Amino acid sequence: MDVKCFQTLELTRLRRTLTRLHEQVHARQGRIEITRDGCDHVCVLISKAELQSLERALEIFAETEAFKVMSEQIAQLVADCGDHRSAATTGKA
Question: Global pTM?
Answer without folding.
Answer: 0.57
